[in-house]
Amino acid sequence: MNNWILGLLVFGGFVAHFLGKLMELRRSEQTLTLKRYVRAHPYQIMYSVVAAAIAGVAMGYYDELTPITAIGAGYMCDSILDKISKRTESALR
């Protein structure tokens, strides 16, 4: 499979989790928009994108990147950062 397709699948996994998270947040905060969320969390989003890219490249280097693992890597990189952020936030309270 072409590397650019796998890259798109990594990005697609990231976007799938990101949009799911945004939909969930909108249930409790109706005024939340994509633009407001991005402005409020620019570093978290950039970190997730960079982590997804690194995971995709590393898995590709070791011949572990398949269409399913590509989607999973992108999804997981956004998901794991949410978990870490929530734990840090609750520890600081």
What would you note in describing this structure?
By secondary structure, the chain is an all-alpha fold. Helix 1 packs parallel to helix 4 and helix 3 runs antiparallel to helix 4. The relative contact order is 0.19.
Question: SSE order, as H and E?
Answer: HHHH
Rg (CA only): 14 Å
N- and C-termini, Cα separation: 47 Å
Query: Overall mean pLDDT score?
Result: 89
Q: What is the global morphology?
A: globular
Approximately how much beta-strand content do the residues carry? under 5%
* Total helical segments: 4
Number of domains: 1
Low-confidence stretches: none
Tell me the helix content. Answer: over 70%
Structural class label: mainly alpha
Number of strands: 0
Main beta-sheet annotation: none
Summarize the structure.
With 93 residues, the protein is mainly α.
Blueprint of the fold:
Blueprint: H1 3-28, H2 34-40, H3 42-61, H4 67-92
Helix pairs in contact: 1-3, 1-4, 3-4
